[in-house]
């Protein structure tokens, strides 16, 4: 008579474990679905809005000198996908446990791939193949950024702030200054006459920076300020120096890495942008670290925590 009772207990225990397992799956499925949906929305919306605003011109004729911005289009597509993944992972999993945050990263990446068919439909023959590859590389870079977000959610806040800054600069300057060129990680109001005060002092700079640097500096300087503010505020709130430094510098560093992933697109104007974004990332790291150190000194732990 003991064996049937044991079998019943085992069956009941298995049923309870199964119910608990599926309840846990259901509880964690929500953030993953949200991450995939937000990743798809961010990937599609950025490409669509950029095309509508004239920031992207994927179907343009890149002949007769317009080839100077052909590579810009490709890296910009990759940039939008790279920003979509960590931002979506942060929005979906910031308040979750670390395992759920980690699982949200591939979900966000899968969602961001939704930009691929839209890019293929918008792109002309000159860039269609390259932009398809750019979507994939951008998503992969976004996964790297998402991994940092999974480890420290404050990094996602910094990346999102950087992406918002660039979008605001791109939309405002495109509307007010003609021409304005938007690069991966940088905005250049080329129509502003900022080179005259420099005279010939910049004429010997490499990568044609004498022509580009004056109008690239305004947004670059604002980016440096943002990195310091994000790092300082984050460190003051959390007391975590490394995470605060990463929060301020992650966006510019991802931008610098992106150009290394697409070396075939780094020519003419995109080459100038690549050099400035790399310099910007190199400046953001020590400045963010310094601001985080100051913020950490101002941190006051909560005695009731």
Automatic annotation (TrEMBL):
TM spans (from-to): 76-94, 101-120, 132-152, 164-191, 211-233, 240-261, 273-294
Record's keyword annotation contains Transmembrane helix: yes
Keywords on record: Membrane, Transmembrane, Transmembrane helix
Keyword Membrane: yes
Domain of life: Bacteria
Name of the molecule in the record: Uncharacterized protein
Species whose genome carries this gene: Actinoallomurus oryzae
Organism lineage: Bacteria, Bacillati, Actinomycetota, Actinomycetes, Streptosporangiales
